[in-house]
Structure formats: C-alpha cells, structure tokens
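Thought: the user wants the 3D structure for the chain below. I'll pass the sequence to the structure tool as-is, report back what it returns, then summarize two notable features.
Action: structure_tool
Action Input:
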Amino acid sequence: MKMTNKQYQDLVEEKAPKSKTGKNVAFAFLIGGGICCAGQGLKNLYGYWHADEKVSGILVAVTLIFLAALLTCLHVYDNIAKVAGAGTLVPITGFSNAMVSPAIEFKSEGMVAGLAVRMFTIAGPVIVFGLCASVLYGVILVLFQVKV
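Observation:
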C-alpha cells in the first residue's frame, strides 16, 4: 500500500494520543499550589503557637519533609504524583520523595549497599549541582563585591 506524505501525516494524527496538556497543567497548578498553601498554613500555625519567623520556617521545612517521606513510605505520594505530575516537584517535598523512594526500593540489598547507597542515586546529582551552583554564585559575589 503506497501512501503520500499527506495521507501518512493524516494517519499519524488520527492514531496519535490526544494531548492532555491543559488538564496536566491544571492538576500540577492545583496540587503544587495546595502543597505550598499547606506550607503557608503550617507557618501560620507555628506562628500562632508563638514560634518566631525563623523557627516557624524551619519547622515548616521539617514537617513537609517528614510528611513527604511518610507519604512515600505509604505509597501515597506516587499516586498523588501520577495525577499532579510536576506539581509534586515543589522542591522540598519532591526532594524528600527522591531521597526516600530509592532507599525503600533497595532496602532488601542491605543497610549499606541498598539503603545508604541507593538513597543518593537520584538526589546525589541534585546535591552536587546545587553545591557547584552555590560556589559559582559565591565567586560571582566576591568578584563583583556585591553585598547581600
């Protein structure tokens, strides 16, 4: 069966799955925004409990890291991520998930070879590039003597 380029393109467009970009963006926005709103709610709660600005920020970070790790262990975070997509990559919760997931998956290999080593398979490059970026930023600040 011979086809022209136009017929082939029409066939490809007919068979290709329809884009769900609008739905994906909406879910990422809503769930990612919900995580951020939960963080702000926690900060307000800790402030209500008389924690100062700096301490409440630290408590929010610890709480979000713990909740993301707990939800990852309970296999709930992955289900949320399937719906939210990039919305669950809010840095602190996404990083917590990235650290805990491989550790859980490879815990059968032992404490050192499984848990400790695999925990940094995904998070290791993030740490390295974050460290390199901070050093580069520091060098630029020193070179231009910008006061922060």
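Final Answer: Structure generated. Residues 32 and 90 are 6 Å apart (CA to CA). The helical segments are 5-15, 21-48, 53-73, 77-84, 91-105, 111-118, 120-144.
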